[in-house]
Write a structure and sequence with these properties.
The complex is a heterodimer.
Chain A lengths: L1 E5 H12 L13 E6 L3 E7 L3 E8 L6 E6 H10 L5 E7 L2 E6 L2 E6 L16 E6 H9 L16 E7 L2 E7 L3 E8 L8 E6 H10 L6 E6 L3 E5 L3 E6 L8 H4 L6 E6 H12 L8 E7 L2 E7 L5 E7 L7 E6 H10 L4 E6 L6 E4 L6 E5 L5
Antiparallel strand pairs in A: 1-6, 2-3, 2-5, 3-4, 4-16, 6-7, 7-8, 9-14, 10-11, 10-13, 11-12, 12-24, 14-15, 15-16, 17-22, 18-19, 18-21, 19-20, 22-23, 23-24
Helix pairs in contact in A: 1-2, 6-7
Chain B lengths: L1 E6 L2 H9 L8 E4 L8 E4 L1 H4 L9 H7 L4 E3 L3 H18 L3 E5 L2 E5 L4 H4 L2 H16 L3 E6 L2 H10 L5 E3 L5 H5 L12 H9 L5 H5 L3 H8 L1 H10 L16 E11 L2 H21 L2 E12 L4 E12 L2 H18 L4 E9 L2 E2 L14 H17 L15
Parallel strand pairs in B: 2-4, 7-8
Antiparallel strand pairs in B: 1-6, 1-7, 2-3, 5-6, 9-12, 10-11, 10-12, 10-13
The chains are: A alpha+beta, B alpha+beta.
Chain lengths: 366, 387
């Protein structure tokens, strides 16, 4: 294999897939990246055995071929070369030679046949979506995913394919985010899959906000999301996601309306003096007034008061301020509606009108 | 001043005390020499033959044909140990037990009541001798490290007081393996630099030591200079709470074991609730008929202090162990680990099962037991059938 190109041309697909390469690998080959050049196209593939990422660009090469190279070293070299530098990559037996101007790098290679790639899988469910829609769906829910929870099925994002609807849910057991997207896909059954956390984060980075279509293939153990330029394949978490519908509050009698940015800013300031570990803050609601208080073990205190629309009884309720801030950040409207049942039941945040997303937060005992 | 009290050949001494015919004979306590047991303790007569703790029992027997070999009677040592601790507490509440047979005492607050550290040291030694008929070695110094070395140097039945300011004089001639943190491997490395005695280390430059040996170098330099700033920690945070019982006869019937286990679980859970802590991990402790120990543990989704939740976990651990084959047990125990204060658990869970009814049952049970006596109300299964 031999190719000559601009630094940027090669760096682009490399940076798209490098995130999946772990810093410590169980197999040496997983530190490598697979580069395939068929004459018209250059494809780079990275994997951690759970998530496989592929990025392709059009490129005419001098000699077609394939090779695996140390991923991070290759990316670091390309990154540190001067902008617009012309570089040449050439395979010579078991070594690869990368030259650019007066720079010369000899890299070791590993056999291409050892590079693990996901086999083609059967995908009874297939759908086509706008890239921007899928990204929006993921980004408005993924922040609530659990991290290294023993309930392994929470360490990921749940996608549910319903009739003419695609639902995305993430939860860490303390808060939950829900979002749905209307589709044209008819389905007579409901199918749920859970994409592992790392895959979700990589996918979110890969997806762009343009309207290009992507093809989603769902098999029994894998999900693939494919566009002309990239391919994302992830294993699925084999587990039963909790019944999210049960925890979406239904009969909420306490409802308040607040300006999102005002609330968010007040919360951010108050949070400075909340307990660093538990992040608790207290809401005190009275007619058209919300007072937010926090204190920490050093006995420092913060209090903010903002105007809201509220007409019910006075009530006090405690929350983890981070959960509130993250949910508010995901809401796109300028106002937020907060609905509650009482100070010990879950609370619902959403756009006042036409929102596709719902954020549920369990209160804290204060 | 810190007093370090260390019992002499503790397990073996207790056995000799309870069976005077063993006096003057080499005695060792440990796991069976027929099996793969090791020595837990050897008296000074046995040590003359080169027998020491952690040595395989079979090897010890080879070293000394007349060795009197006794099984470990842990409950007995625990009982004696608690009597020793009671003696400590007469003189100060500042007691930090290191194990069953040794402890640090900070006696600075006790001078007005009981006299100087030397007087207290003698009083404790005498109390142990008179009341328990056992000997202890006592070391007294300004800090924990020097006190411990001092108690060790004149064993058995030793008593050594290191006057403040004379630490170096005392430590200097000692070999470097007397320093905490220097074992066989690092000893060699220090020898390579001609550091053979504590004096050599004391006179070295601390920076040089740190460059050569890292953090350890700095630590041993401080110790060699008789500097140890750690205080006596009388109340260590409990890492786990457990209850266990040793049977008079080995039991293999899983139903009988289950009944005992539920009893222990009730005790553990009620202690958790009493201390207002919850546990994340449930540990099942077993000792088989051949003395081998087995522990199985499982981490729960959420910390709990609910009897039935701990019980379900402990039960399933036991059943899992019995699934493959039948075992004969001499001890069973249940423990709660991963402890945290109940009050720290403020964030409510979205998917929490309805546990409130269970919590209420436990609350009521605790109240009744507090009022009418321990275990007056308990799970029906633990009631003997003929009652």
């Amino acid at each position: 294999m031999k190719l000559t190109t601009l630094r940027e041309t090669l760096l682009n697909p490399l940076t798209m897939v490098i995130g999946v390469v772990e810093r410590r690998q169980t197999l040496p080959i997983l530190a490598n990246i697979l580069i395939q050049a068929d004459g018209k196209k250059l494809t780079v593939t990275a994997t951690d055995l759970e998530v496989e990422l592929k990025a392709s660009i059009d490129m005419v090469v001098d000699e077609p071929g394939e090779v695996t190279l140390p991923a991070r070293k290759l990316v670091d070299i390309c990154r540190t070369l001067p902008a617009e530098a012309q570089l040449t990559l050439k395979i010579n037996g078991e070594k690869a030679l990368l030259t650019s101007g007066r720079s010369r790098f000899t890299l070791s290679t590993l056999p291409v046949k050892d590079f693990p790639v996901v086999d083609k899988f059967k995908s009874p469910t297939e759908l086509n979506l706008k890239q921007s829609d899928l990204k929006q769906l993921i980004d408005s829910t993924q922040f609530a995913m659990a991290q290294q929870d023993v309930r392994y099925y929470l360490n990921g994002l749940m996608l549910e394919i319903q009739d003419k609807q695609l639902v995305s849910v993430a939860t860490d057991g303390h808060r939950l985010s829900y979002c749905h997207l209307d589709t044209t896909i008819a389905s007579d059954s409901v199918q749920q899959i859970i994409i592992p956390r790392k895959g979700v984060q990589e996918l979110s980075k890969l997806l762009s906000t343009d309207d290009e279509m992507v093809n989603v293939k769902i098999g029994s153990n894998h999900i693939a999301i494919i566009s002309p330029a990239l391919s994302f394949i992830s294993k699925l978490i084999d587990g039963k996601f909790p019944d999210y519908d049960r925890v979406l509050p239904k009969k909420t009698e306490i409802k308040l309306l607040a300006n999102k940015d005002t609330l968010s800013a007040a919360l951010t300031r108050t949070s400075i003096l909340s307990n660093e570990k538990y992040r608790g803050i207290r809401f005190s609601l009275s007619t058209n007034k919300l007072s937010i208080q926090a204190h920490n073990p050093e006995k420092e205190e913060a209090e903010e008061e903002i105007e809201i629309q509220y007409t019910g009884d006075d009530i006090e309720i405690g929350f983890n301020v981070n959960y509130l801030l993250e949910a508010l950040a995901a809401i796109e409207d300028e106002n937020v509606q907060i609905s509650m049942v009482d100070s010990s039941s879950s609370c619902l945040l959403q756009q006042p009108k036409n929102g596709n997303c719902k954020y549920v937060i369990m209160p804290m005992r204060l | 001043m810190i007093v370090h009290v260390d019992m002499d050949a503790f397990y073996a001494s207790v056995e000799v005390r309870d069976n005077p015919t063993l006096k003057g004979k080499p005695v060792a306590v440990g796991g069976s020499p027929q099996g793969r047991g090791v020595i837990c303790a050897a008296n000074y007569e046995a040590r003359k033959f080169g027998i020491h703790s952690a040595m395989p029992s079979a090897h010890a027997i080879r070293l000394c044909k007349n060795l009197v070999f006794l099984p470990v009677n842990m409950q007995k040592y625990i009982d004696v140990s608690s009597k020793i601790r009671d003696i400590f507490y007469r003189y100060t509440p500042e007691v930090e037990p290191l194990s069953l047979d040794e402890a640090f005492l900070d006696v600075d607050g006790s001078k007005k009541l009981f006299g100087s550290a030397i007087e207290i040291g003698h009083a404790i030694k005498n109390d142990i001798q008179n009341e328990l008929n056992l000997t202890a070695s006592v070391g007294i110094a300004q800090n924990k490290y020097v006190a411990k070395v001092a108690s060790d140097i004149n064993k058995p039945n030793g008593f050594l007081y290191i006057e403040p300011g004379k630490e170096s004089q005392f430590l200097d001639p000692l070999p470097i393996n007397r320093l905490w943190g220097i074992g066989k491997a690092s000893e060699k490395r220090f020898h390579e630099f001609s550091l053979n005695s504590i004096k050599d280390i004391r006179q070295s430059n601390v920076q040089d030591l740190e460059t050569e040996f890292g953090k350890q170098g700095r630590k041993v330099w401080y110790l060699a200079n008789g500097i140890d700033t750690r205080s006596v920690e009388s109340e260590r945070k409990a890492k786990s709470i457990s209850h266990e019982t040793t049977f008079s006869q080995d039991i293999s019937d899983i139903h009988a074991l289950t009944a005992i286990l539920i009893n222990l679980t009730e005790s553990v859970a009620s202690r958790l609730r009493h201390k207002q802590i919850k546990c994340r991990t449930v540990i099942l402790k077993l000792r088989l008929a051949d003395f081998s120990r087995v522990t199985r543990s499982r981490t729960l989704l959420e910390a709990t202090d609910i009897t039935s939740e701990i019980w379900n976990t402990a039960k399933s651990l036991l059943q899992q162990f019995y699934q493959s084959e039948n075992h004969s047990l001499r001890l069973i125990g249940v423990g709660a680990g991963g402890l945290k204060k109940t009050s720290e658990q403020n964030q409510k869970d979205l998917f929490a099962e309805e546990t409130s009814s269970m919590t209420n049952i436990d609350k009521v049970t605790d109240k009744i037991n507090a009022k009418y006596g321990d275990k007056i109300i308990h799970r029906a299964r633990t009631t003997p059938k003929n009652n």
